[in-house]
UniProtKB/TrEMBL annotation:
Residues 859-924 form the HTH luxR-type domain. This is Regulatory LuxR family protein. Keywords: ATP-binding, Nucleotide-binding. CDD domains: LuxR_C_like (cd06170). It comes from the Bacteria. Gene3D superfamilies: P-loop containing nucleotide triphosphate hydrolases (3.40.50.300), Tetratricopeptide repeat domain (1.25.40.10), Winged helix-like DNA-binding domain superfamily/Winged helix DNA-binding domain (1.10.10.10). PROSITE patterns: HTH_LUXR_2. It comes from Actinoplanes lutulentus. One of its GO terms (biological process) is regulation of DNA-templated transcription. GO terms for cellular component: cytoplasm. One of its GO terms (molecular function) is DNA binding.
């Protein structure tokens, strides 16, 4: 009786789907199709059936598969692909090129990120060269794939859309553990529709009966079907194994496999047990080296294992696979402990002699309980993975290095400093994969060991990276500063370590916008660390927010030039990011509109997607600020939806989406700005939270909630005042003035501006100062001094126009219209309203801004009965001025003032001065 069904049962819908995708690929419209299901569900069988159909349709078929442990080896699955290509004469040259490229030394290409990017780009080009005809590439067991392989496959999925290339991968849906590289990769590709996913369900009772009949060649009795179905749970592999056992149906799959293994000859059974220590896939030469048996004996054993469906040959027969990983697992688990240890030791020695990958050798030595020999190979493999930015693999290998180091030390104690070095390296890799809690623990242990061993300098040297991790975990400024300052005495006279501590202090202070301290420490560090790109970027950014724009922009542009020339892509992208985003914040919009697209294009080229999307979010902010509201909404939405920009991109995009909705959709604006405020508040950084608070203040004003607007403005002021900030404070000046004028009156507005103005003038950032003329103009207008208000508002309008700031620039036109209307200049007032409508670009202007302008009068409503001079007198009277004070203000005699007041009373039909104030208030509200 055959072990496998000659026909595929219960998968017709999936075969039809694959058939459609093959047809599309033949028309140069390929894709990535993922087949998901639990272990033993039949993914391999379905993949084999798809490959057969593809070959029958004229496709070239290339197969690659992963094995347990491959997740620790950078490009393991790509290496298998190269080996498969090399076996086919038509693609042998490409396979050779791929394998040579994987083993080439890329150090001369720049930093590890650049090395990895160029490697992936070269591999993509090589796969492109394969797909000159309709091609199917299958990728089996992606749950064991490494990061670099998944990176390549994800990019291939995008390219396949315009190639005659179908990519089909399988993975175990029950093994998507949190730290498995496949998990986030699969979510991103499926969500962004770069991949299609189909799931293999378990077989029904009817399908199980059909499969049993196909295997046995006969219809089996219902009790037999029930027994197998109940134990197999509809999993095809289990059905096959249970059915292959004669007599009573075993309780578990392992029992079934071992029952079949007992029927093997002693040589084949021993060979299978030996092969099981090598994993799901095993190399023939390595197996021969371990056993030491004659070739004829090994060939005979493999032939029997293949005939009994335990293993199957791969390619040219130089390697074999167990028919399923679960079969290998059952055989491996049946080995006695000492026998298993002995076999792993022989495997490690043979692999070492044959030059196998360091990760494989270290794994074998560890399983052989020979930690001293495992340790150096684990460190070597981890270092190699880190050099390719394969941080997940590197972290796992450093963990192995720690385990084996500890085990070796327990048998023959070694120096603790070695453990500290490994812990520090592990912490760096954990930080790179955002496992900050684990990185913190590793740094903490490394620091403790250094201190206990009297290694004060080494202890101080790891503080900058440790503090950076602690910042992400929520440590406040005071704690971070204290830790770094405590490291300065520990560094002694070592200039480099001291400089790096000062550089870290500069970065800490910059994030909290304590700019004077940041610059002081930055200059200390620069005196030693000449041309340090990261440090120069920090200092350049500090100079910008201190108002020293020419120095800051020049330094950042120089960093970009130097970093690009040196192939330091991370540093170049960071400098682009800081330059463009700073210009966005500092109202240098023309520079931002040059710098941000250039930075985005660079980040695209070097595939720094976090930086790319952050800059895109800031470009969306610039678009909103300069009046392109729809363009801003679209770009911010794209940056938000992509999901690869991180929390800072999300916050910035939410700011923009909130601003873009201020005038038309208050509910959407409130939702976006509230989320941004919550996220920014959790980070505790002014630059993340203050823009959201300002948006909420504006929204409250537009909704007529003056008290809430004042509260938000006071939040923003307090946060900026705490660090002497001006760059995030400036928009609050006008918003706060409006809020206090409508909610409390001119005196409260004057007090507000008296607190805000010193902070803005102290920094004297050019793009922020025009808000003061605007705010003072509003106060003068509210107090009836239209002449002074007119001058101030004209200056503010010129400033916002020159800076191309759309929001305040539109509002100030309506403020000028209100001033002209009160000054009895109806023609000018109408022109200002028309200019505001043109600047607004369509839709209704905010009612708050229109108040007191000609556009705010109801149809047919009469204009004010007072003359322009009478209006001036009335406003001063309403403000509580005596006749003598009014006379001094307007440079007229007290008798003339008294006459004006009598005329006002007569025209308004009132008898008391307080009623004049009431009439003015009703006019302003209208």
């Amino acid at each position: 009786m055959a072990l496998s069904s000659p026909v595929l049962i219960g998968r017709s819908d999936l075969l039809d789907l694959a058939g459609r995708r093959l047809a599309e690929a033949a028309r140069s419209s390929g894709e990535l199709l993922l087949l998901a299901g639990e272990a033993g569900i039949g993914k391999t069988r379905l993949l084999r059936e798809i490959a057969g159909r593809a070959a029958g349709s004229g496709f070239a078929v290339i197969r690659a598969s992963a094995a347990p442990g491959d997740a620790e080896v950078a490009a393991a699955l790509v290496t298998d692909l190269g080996a498969q290509l090399r076996r086919d004469p038509a693609t042998a040259q490409i396979g050779d090129q791929m394998l040579r490229r994987l083993t080439a030394d890329g150090k001369e290409m720049g930093d590890p990120d650049r090395q990895r990017r160029l490697l992936v780009a070269d591999l993509l080009d090589l796969v492109d060269a394969v797909a000159v005809r309709p091609t199917l590439i299958t990728w089996e067991d992606l749950h064991w794939a490494d990061e670099l392989t998944l990176d390549l496959l994800g990019r291939l999925a995008v390219r396949a859309r315009s190639l005659p290339l179908l990519l089909v991968g399988t993975y175990r849906s029950d093994e998507l553990y949190p730290r498995v590289p496949l998990r986030a990769w699969r979510t991103r590709l499926v969500t962004q529709r770069h991949a299609e996913e189909a799931r293999l369900p378990r077989l029904s009772r009817a399908d199980t009966a059909a499969m049993m009949a196909a295997i046995s060649g006969d219809t089996l009795p219902a009790y037999a079907v029930s027994a197998v179905f109940e134990r197999s749970d509809g999993i095809p592999l289990h059905v096959e194994e249970f059915l292959a056992v004669t007599g009573r149906v075993p309780d578990t799959l392992a029992d079934a496999v071992l029952s079949r293994a007992e029927q093997l000859g002693s040589g084949a059974r021993e060979l299978a047990a030996t092969a099981s220590v090598l994993g799901r896939s095993f190399d023939l030469d390595l197996l021969a080296a371990i056993t030491g048996d004659a070739p004829g004996t090994i060939d005979a054993g493999l032939r029997e294992l293949a005939e009994r469906f335990f293993v199957q040959a791969r390619g040219d027969g130089s390697a074999f696979d167990f028919r399923h990983a679960l079969i290998r697992d059952a055989l491996y688990a049946d080995l006695t402990p000492l026998r298993r240890r002995e076999l792993h030791g022989r495997a490690a020695e043979a692999a070492e002699a044959a030059g196998f990958a360091a990760a494989f050798i270290s794994d074998q030595y560890e399983r052989a309980q020979r930690p001293a020999e495992a340790f150096p190979y684990a460190v070597s493999a981890a270092t190699e993975a880190a050099s390719l930015s394969a941080h997940q693999e590197a972290a796992e290998l450093y963990r192995r290095a720690l385990r084996t180091l500890d085990q070796a030390a327990s048998r023959a104690p070694g120096p603790a400093v070695s453990r500290a070095a490994v812990l520090t390296a592990l912490a760096g890799e954990l930080a790179a994969i955002d496992d900050n809690a684990a990185a913190d623990r590793a740094y903490s242990q490394a620091h403790r060991i250094r201190v206990e061993d009297g290694e004060r300098l080494a202890a101080a040297a790891l503080l900058p990276e440790w503090v950076a991790v602690r910042h992400l975990l929520g440590d406040g400024l005071d704690r971070r500063v204290a830790v770094l300052r405590a490291g300065l005495p520990e560094a002694g006279d070592d200039p480099v370590v001291r400089a790096r501590l000062h550089a870290a202090l500069a970065a800490v202070y910059m994030l909290d916008r304590r700019l004077t301290e940041a610059l002081d420490h930055g200059e200390h560090a620069r005196a030693v660390l000449n041309n340090d790109l990261d440090l120069d970027t920090t200092v350049g950014s500090v100079l910008l927010f201190l108002g020293r724009l020419d120095e800051g922009f020049t330094l950042l542009e120089d960093v970009i030039t130097r970093a690009v020339a040196a192939g330091r892509e991370r540093q170049a992208a960071r400098a682009h990011r800081m330059l463009g985003s700073s210009a966005s914040v500092l109202v240098e919009y023309e520079r931002a509109q040059r710098a941000l697209p250039a930075g985005i294009a660079y980040a695209d080229r070097v595939e720094r997607f976090n930086d790319r999307h952050y800059m895109a979010a800031h470009l969306a902010h610039v678009r909103w600020a300069t009046g392109d509201v729809e363009g801003a909404r679209s770009l911010a939405g794209s940056a938000l939806a992509d999901g690869r920009g991180g929390i800072t991109t999300r916050i910035t995009a939410l700011h923009v989406l909130g601003y873009a909705a201020l005038a038309r959709d208050h509910a959407a604006a409130r939702a976006a700005l509230t989320e941004a405020a919550e996220l920014g508040g959790a980070m505790g950084e002014l630059q993340r939270v203050s823009p959201a608070w300002w948006g909420l203040a504006e929204l409250s004003l537009l909704d007529g909630e003056q008290a809430a607007a004042i509260d938000w403005c006071e939040h923003g002021f307090a946060a900026s005042a705490a660090v002497g900030d001006a760059s995030y404070l400036f928009p609050y000046a006008v918003t706060g003035a409006r809020a206090y004028l409508t909610g409390s009156g001119p005196s409260a507005a004057r007090d507000w501006l008296a607190r805000v103005e010193p902070l803005l003038t102290a920094r004297a950032i050019p793009g922020t100062l025009g808000c003061l003329d605007h705010a003072w103009g509003l106060i003068e207008l509210a107090e009836g001094r239209t002449g002074r208000a007119r001058v101030l508002l004209e200056r503010a309008a010129a400033f916002w126009g020159e800076r191309r700031r759309f929001w305040e620039g539109t509002a100030v036109l309506l403020d000028q219209a209100r001033c002209a209307h009160r000054s009895r200049r109806p023609g000018a007032a109408t022109e200002f309203v028309a200019a505001a409508r043109e600047a607004w670009g369509g839709g209704e202007l905010p009612r708050l801004w229109l108040a007191g302008t000609p556009s705010d009068l109801p149809a047919g409503a009469a204009a004010s009965p007072l003359t322009a001079r009478e209006l001036e007198v009335a406003r001063l009277v309403a403000a509580g001025r005596t006749d003598r004070e009014v006379a001094g203000e307007l440079v007229i005699s007290p008798r003339t003032v008294s006459a004006h007041v009598e005329h006002i009373r007569t025209k308004l039909g009132v008898s008391r001065r307080a009623q004049i104030a009431g009439w003015l208030a009703s006019m302003d509200r209208s």
